[in-house]
Amino acid sequence: MRVSIPTDDALLDTYLPSARPDGSGVGVNYADQLLKLLKQTLPDGRKLAARRRGLKVSVTIGESSGHSIMRRIEHGPETRVIFERALVEAAREAGAGLTREPGVIHLDL
């Protein structure tokens, strides 16, 4: 099953460190805004939730969960890439495939 979650990239870009500095070096403001979009109930009734604690990103799908760390040295310096790679890894650990395209996030369950 594939779930598509629409995103407003123009709005998200206002939270990048170049527009709104946050001091983290990995764009936690950008990450928080994108993670808010992932909190919902899936068509099969399972809950989808994502959150950030420090540099740790957690994705929960129903009863399974996955975690990842935003790594600036390994995936940097681009803020979007750092966060999206951490999000993909966390979703994979939770048992889903995640792909990001302009204007949409696809979650393959």
In short:
The chain is built from four helices and seven strands. It is α+β, with helices and mostly antiparallel strands.
Q: Can you walk through the features of this model?
A:
The protein is 31% helix and 33% strand. It is of the alpha+beta class and 109 residues long. It has one domain. The protein has a 4-stranded antiparallel β-sheet with strand order 2-3-4-5, with helices on one face. The protein has a 3-stranded antiparallel β-sheet with strand order 1-7-6. The longest helix is centred in the C-terminal third of the chain and has 15 residues.
What attributes does this structure have?
single chain, 109 residues, four-stranded antiparallel β-sheet, three-stranded antiparallel β-sheet, 7 strands, globular
What topology emerges from the helices and strands here?
Blueprint: E1 2-6, H1 9-13, H2 28-37, E2 40-41, E3 47-53, E4 56-61, E5 64-69, H3 72-75, H4 79-93, E6 97-101, E7 104-108
Antiparallel strand pairs: 1-7, 2-3, 3-4, 4-5, 6-7
